[in-house]
């Protein structure tokens, strides 16, 4: 890190730069204090970047232990990386890649208006973050968040990189990591007690039931199996929980997805556009109750386990067979090219909504059962039918026959 003496005060021939030292206050680490700027040297590792200072190739902005780094490598790649939680834990993970646009970065500088800028060899700005934030310093935190602070040490911008929206193959979750749902209503938390828990608000909806194992961590393995392992410090590594979904092949894409009421492991085969379920926390249920949603890849399983109600981008249907997937033929289409969500409403109507890419408001309602009895629920049966049942136990709609009077 090369410091330019554009800030600070000159006293007795020494120029001091105002440095901020971390004080833990919840999710965001605030900053205050003074320190002397270190002398410039090759491949520096420092804990704070202030206005006028640069990261040049080989330099890193890092946590005190060096585990979390915003590193500018020798070929111009700029990445926020987690180098692993320690001996016995998973290895390096790229949290954020700033140079996926094929550009390379020559140096990174925090500019006077608080913008972090990466310049290429020709002097063009190829990376920008926290534009005009007014920050005077930026720090990488132990929780993988990168926080920009003003002259009073108040946070004015953060990357929220401590919260994940996606977990792919080879990604891992250590204590304190959080994965947000697509609409951020729910979150999956790897807790310090070793339990992996899905919350909606403050209400737990599902857990791996692995509490009592401090330091346990979760890995989305390359084969598609989500596994919670015991902490290395507790002795030989043990699998405390797994989803049993380890059947992905080379070229398949697997993702752990957090939704409003459940968490799923989904697979996209080769270059096909749709994700299909490998495992879901909802598979222990044969029904969709009032307030439940089925997003792409969600499943419900009939009582004998032979038939599976599933959802894709183009709708939902039921497939039956020895493995539950022998025949899959969607019978209700929500139209391709957009996110489809099927929701059992509190009024008893099962409705499929279509959301535009990136949108939070539905653009279309391509299907609904037309049922209107509060307390109704959808159940998938062993015969391959899916039926809306009223609170009195009477069916009011069937996937195979439609409305039932």
TrEMBL record:
Keywords: Signal
Source organism superkingdom: Bacteria
Classification of source organism: Bacteria, Bacillati, Actinomycetota, Actinomycetes, Micrococcales
Keyword Membrane: no
Keyword Nucleotidyltransferase recorded: no
Span of domain Bulb-type lectin: 131-241
Residues annotated as signal peptide: 1-42
Originating species: Aquipuribacter hungaricus
SUPFAM superfamilies attached to this UniProt entry: alpha-D-mannose-specific plant lectins (SSF51110)
Membrane-spanning ranges: none
Protein name: Bulb-type lectin domain-containing protein
């Amino acid at each position: 890190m090369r410091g330019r003496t554009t800030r600070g005060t000159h006293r007795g021939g020494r120029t001091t730069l105002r440095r901020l030292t971390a004080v833990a206050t919840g999710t965001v680490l605030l900053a205050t204090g003074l320190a002397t700027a270190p002398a410039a040297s090759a491949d520096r590792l420092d804990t704070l970047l202030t206005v006028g200072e640069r990261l040049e190739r080989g330099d890193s902005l890092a946590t005190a232990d060096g585990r979390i780094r915003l590193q500018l490598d020798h070929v111009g790649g700029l990445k926020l990386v987690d180098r692993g939680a320690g001996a016995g834990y998973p290895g390096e993970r790229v949290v954020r890649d700033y140079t996926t646009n094929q550009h390379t970065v020559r140096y990174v500088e925090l500019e006077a208006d608080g913008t972090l800028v990466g310049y290429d060899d020709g002097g063009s700005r190829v990376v920008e973050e926290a534009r005009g934030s007014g920050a005077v310093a930026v720090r990488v935190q132990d929780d993988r968040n990168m926080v920009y602070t003003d002259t009073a040490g108040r946070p004015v911008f953060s990357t929220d990189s401590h919260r994940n929206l996606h977990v792919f193959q080879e990604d891992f979750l250590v204590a304190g990591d959080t994965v947000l749902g697509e609409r951020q209503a729910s979150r999956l938390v790897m807790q310090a007690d070793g339990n992996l828990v899905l919350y909606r608000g403050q209400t737990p909806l599902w857990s791996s039931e692995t509490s009592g194992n401090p330091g346990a961590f979760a890995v989305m393995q390359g084969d598609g199996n989500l596994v919670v392992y015991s902490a290395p410090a507790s002795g030989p590594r043990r699998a405390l929980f797994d989803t049993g979904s380890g059947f992905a092949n080379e070229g398949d894409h697997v993702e752990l997805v957090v939704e409003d009421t459940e968490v799923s492991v989904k697979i996209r085969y080769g270059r096909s556009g749709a994700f299909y379920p490998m495992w879901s926390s909802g598979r222990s249920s044969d029904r969709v109750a009032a307030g439940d949603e089925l997003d792409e890849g969600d499943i419900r399983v009939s009582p004998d386990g032979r038939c599976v109600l599933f959802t894709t981008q183009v709708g939902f249907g039921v497939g039956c067979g020895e493995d539950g997937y022998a025949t899959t033929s969607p019978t209700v289409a929500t139209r391709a090219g957009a996110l489809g969500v099927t929701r059992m409403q509190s009024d008893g109507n099962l409705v499929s909504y279509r959301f535009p890419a990136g949108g939070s408001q539905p653009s279309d309602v391509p299907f609904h059962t037309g049922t209107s009895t509060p307390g109704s629920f959808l159940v998938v049966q062993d015969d391959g039918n899916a039926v809306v049942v009223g609170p009195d136990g009477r069916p009011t709609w069937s996937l195979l026959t439609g409305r039932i009077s």
